[in-house]
Automatic annotation (TrEMBL):
GO terms for biological process: calcium import into the mitochondrion; mitochondrial calcium ion homeostasis. The lineage of its organism: Eukaryota, Metazoa, Chordata, Craniata, Vertebrata. InterPro entries: MCU_reg. This is Essential MCU regulator, mitochondrial. GO terms for cellular component: uniplex complex.
Length: 99
């Protein structure tokens, strides 16, 4: 039984050696050779679909999304920094650099 357990890794490594060797001969591929079609741009019959409608994403819309989240993130970080200072977990030192 011990001998069979020692032979198992040898069998597994010899099975994988075909993958790791540099055999430049012709190999049979298991990848099917089918024609790929993109159904996102064409119908099943082959007709090309019209361009999708674009919704304008202007500077105003982007600002309306970004500014509130920056403000909320600012409030969260400010309150968390105050909490850390209150519990003496992190207290920044005031360095007097009078050079």
């Amino acid at each position: 039984m011990a001998a069979s357990m020692l032979r198992l890794p040898l069998r597994l490594s010899s099975r994988n050696m075909g993958i790791m060797t540099r055999n430049t001969g012709l190999k049979t591929s298991h990848i099917p050779r089918t024609t790929q079609s993109r159904t996102a741009v064409s119908t099943p019959s082959g007709a090309i679909l019209p361009k999708p409608e674009k919704t304008p994403f202007g500077l105003i819309r982007m600002t309306l999304v970004v500014v509130p989240f920056l403000y909320v993130g600012n409030l969260i970080s400010k309150n968390f920094a105050a909490l850390l200072e209150e519990h003496d977990i992190f207290v920044p030192e005031d360095d007097d650099d009078d050079d």
